Amino acid sequence: MSRPFGASERALLFDRKGRRYLVTLEEGGQFHSHAGYVEHAAILGRPEGVTVTATGGARYLVVRPTLSEFVLKMPRGAQVIYPKDLGPILMLADVFPGARVLEAGVGSGALSMTLLRAGADVVGYELRPDFASRAQKNVAAFLGAEALARYRVEERDVYEGIDETALDRVVLDLPEPWRVVKHAEGALHPGGIFVAYLPTITQVAQLREALDASAFGMAETVEVLNRTWHIEGQSVRPDHRMVAHTGFLTSARLLGAAPEQAPEVR
Amino acid sequence: MSRPFGASERALLFDRKGRRYLVTLEEGGQFHSHAGYVEHAAILGRPEGVTVTATGGARYLVVRPTLSEFVLKMPRGAQVIYPKDLGPILMLADVFPGARVLEAGVGSGALSMTLLRAGADVVGYELRPDFASRAQKNVAAFLGAEALARYRVEERDVYEGIDETALDRVVLDLPEPWRVVKHAEGALHPGGIFVAYLPTITQVAQLREALDASAFGMAETVEVLNRTWHIEGQSVRPDHRMVAHTGFLTSARLLGAAPEQAPEVR
Amino acid sequence: MSRPFGASERALLFDRKGRRYLVTLEEGGQFHSHAGYVEHAAILGRPEGVTVTATGGARYLVVRPTLSEFVLKMPRGAQVIYPKDLGPILMLADVFPGARVLEAGVGSGALSMTLLRAGADVVGYELRPDFASRAQKNVAAFLGAEALARYRVEERDVYEGIDETALDRVVLDLPEPWRVVKHAEGALHPGGIFVAYLPTITQVAQLREALDASAFGMAETVEVLNRTWHIEGQSVRPDHRMVAHTGFLTSARLLGAAPEQAPEVR
Amino acid sequence: MSRPFGASERALLFDRKGRRYLVTLEEGGQFHSHAGYVEHAAILGRPEGVTVTATGGARYLVVRPTLSEFVLKMPRGAQVIYPKDLGPILMLADVFPGARVLEAGVGSGALSMTLLRAGADVVGYELRPDFASRAQKNVAAFLGAEALARYRVEERDVYEGIDETALDRVVLDLPEPWRVVKHAEGALHPGGIFVAYLPTITQVAQLREALDASAFGMAETVEVLNRTWHIEGQSVRPDHRMVAHTGFLTSARLLGAAPEQAPEVR
């Protein structure tokens, strides 16, 4: 990753107010802002962390985007799962290299690229063709086209069933995950993990009820809060405002045969 | 991962109160608890999610431990970084397959196994030989001995310098990370990411001061709070108690040549 | 309040571990602990903040209990509303001297003594005679018998109706406050404030639905989190554990005639 | 409080977006907004909770402001202490009717009116004459001129000393409260309570160090977080954004004679 910037790569430009601009570098390209423009040539062949100056005098710091930065700047239609939740989802779903994961719906692909980068083989079910297409483009743009070998997106409705079997994980970002519980029972191997991201607690309660009536056990729900700090000399304090809510994360684990025998774990 | 349990594998047993027991399965082995014992033979060859019954009648649910579960149960001397922080660290440090990461100190290896599982090549600096040895054992136990090919632990003091160069990331869990800032400047390539985990805000302030005076930019500090929910029928509410603090996560990025030209990004 | 301790007063003894003991001082009395005993005579006639020594050598710091301290130590059967919520309730209910407040149920009187101390005239509805009696005793013990002149507790069911009219505030700590909404509409004057404390979000949703269908407007729900800090020399950090939940506070305001005309305030 | 609106009273007008306008009612007055105007005559003589219509058709709900609402809308120069902290301060400082409280600095009077309404006799030290004057006007506007009998503001620097003695409480909202600790030792009676509001943790650490070296004990620091909820039919979730920080509240209690004997309470 210490190689210089090349054509068709993504670069992230930061101005001094922390505004971020995602640029696809091209020979002969220009990045235009209110402060004039920057020739892509000023970036191509240079190392990460370089500073470039626009015609109007404004300076920009140029780096490769992290996954978190890319997710917030990539083309997207649907609401994405935010970076603050992506890391915890990796841990809750216990994603490992080679894990066979069903993801539905894929939306703009933020979660897909997180799962893929962690080494999973991902099958995505997505109802909307435009989302399916954009997710694949975003994955290829960030992870490279070779990641598509582990990423298959099908335009279909997960509420109607899951064809895969012996899956390791099922990860859901859709409004009615309780309609997927029965399908997931059949699609996961025993010990497999089910994770759902949901915006409202009303949905969570309905999902948990469905899980209680299923072969899943060890159900847990958590919300993740990130509190950032302002640290500048003697001024050390939490930032004045924060994101108070995005979604609730619910996980459960498929029990083996004869679940009626299993202890009800609390 | 749908294969049955085999000898020398780790199994996690849950009783109905949610207590967890980590067991290394062996032919002829027994798991003893206050409720009698379970023959390992009752688990070997069975699938995950199976329920076994101890001689005293207590039932246990048996699964393979997730990384989060393993970290909390594995042999450890030092305080480990908790699962709630491990996922966010993966995102902050933007760990990718093949990333060259320096980690110091390695402690019991919780962070090492998280980085390794995400595909990184990890060099660990650790002062204490007993920690270095245990970390490697824990990594091998959870990820398999083949993971050691990407994990080299050296018994040395990172405060005295870093030999590696062109690293992608430096991740620190030690008391005085400000003493590593200069070394990390030389060891990371431009655009490389520095992440430190620190228990007190006093340490964070001192680190941020050192970062301000360095070639690093885009410094940020965040704390991650996990709030779990109690959901049982109509009783839907946050749990009554939570972990309010473990540590603060600080990240920064190495700027390129001529940092005096870089915009001071806020 | 700078007067010395007198007989029949409450004193709070702190040991060096922060354990607290509430004692009613009497001539000839003794406070017994695992560390021996302290003669009340060692406290009577002494000023607040005095240190006394038990026969076994342990030392105790003696102060008059604050309302917060008293609430946590007074005789109580039901769950009390915690100090962290009492202050916010005073603000939400906008309690002022002379305010006519209906409180139901009164439980052990923690909220009653908070309202009374803020100057309100309180009518309490409480189903259980033992609670009604204890609440009055606790109020008299903390605020003095003269406070009972502004505190009338009736053994009755607020779900069946409210006799009072032109009340300033209605404050509820009971399981089904939606059953009180219609009664409160008739009992409060326009502009009057309704506040309910509820443990679960399920209850809150049901209450908010009832408020939406009522003459109340400006409904809001908030939860209050207190995060304490450990500060000792260089060790400055949040405490490791905290109370994550007690209850949700919901408030609303009675609109005037012709509410169908009122703007739906968000 | 069920009386109709009268001249020279404050009224709070809410539009349907929740925007709030504080108006001092006068015979012949008009409230002007982008939506036309409302004659004060449409409000005078009407009960709280009435709805009035501006010439442009917009409707406003009219109530008397609560203390919380008044504080956010009253004329103010300095940063005020927010309502979320005012209730907790009342509990931490354990304010009771007749309590003799020193407050410094008074700023715009938000805390003063909270202390006064809870029944305290308040002496305010304030360096800036314009603040002192505005605080008194705000107090009179919200609590009535009779409250001024219990409110004396002196234009002086509390860092230079406190003349009062045998005070019950000292409540501080100023940048260097550690410079007041020695003065407060002499001004409070034993058992008296010291409370300081501070924006940064750096200041808190310095204050706690001063308290550790003083005759105060039982020092505690807390921050108060309010999380509001969005509740509308099935959409039940925390609001997406929240105030993450205003200030830290630190309290301590003056120990009696011979503090070297007191147990160090944790």
Task: Write a structural description.
The structure is a homotetramer of 266-residue chains. The first copy, chain A, is an alpha/beta fold. The first copy, chain A, has 2 domains: 10-65, Vcp-like ATPase, Chain A, domain 2; 69-261, Rossmann fold. Chain A is 22% helix and 33% strand. Chain A is built from 6 helices and 15 strands. Chain A has helices at 67-73, 83-92, 110-117, 129-143, 181-187, 201-212; strands at residues 10-14, 20-24, 30-33, 36-39, 50-53, 59-63, 100-104, 121-125, 151-154, 167-172, 188-198, 216-232, 235-238, 241-243, 248-254. In chain A, the strands form 3 sheets. An 8-stranded mixed beta sheet of chain A has the order 9-8-7-10-11-15-12-13, with helices on both faces. A 4-stranded antiparallel beta sheet of chain A has the order 2-1-6-5, covered by helices on one side. In chain A, helix 3 (110-117) packs across helix 4. The model of chain A has no long low-confidence stretch (mean pLDDT 94). Chains in contact: A-B, A-C, A-D, B-C, B-D, C-D. The B-C interface holds B 199-202, 223, 227-228, 234-246 and C 199-202, 223, 227-228, 234-246. Strand 12 of chain C pairs antiparallel with strand 12 of chain D.
